[in-house]
Amino acid sequence: MSFWRVLLSILCPPLAVIDKGCGSILIVFLLWICGWVPGVIAALVILNNPKS
Asked: Which of 2, 22, 39, 44 could, after both became Cys, cross-link 13 (CB 3.0–4.6 A)?
């Protein structure tokens, strides 16, 4: 996980997970709409997952 990806996940979480698939983008986007903190946490968890 690079510094720029972490910075992007803090500023705009859906853009940070754009290469992880449509489902990840949708989940992060919905959480981001509900609140900024849940979206950031979800994006960081998805980016930190070594299997994807």
From this structure: 39
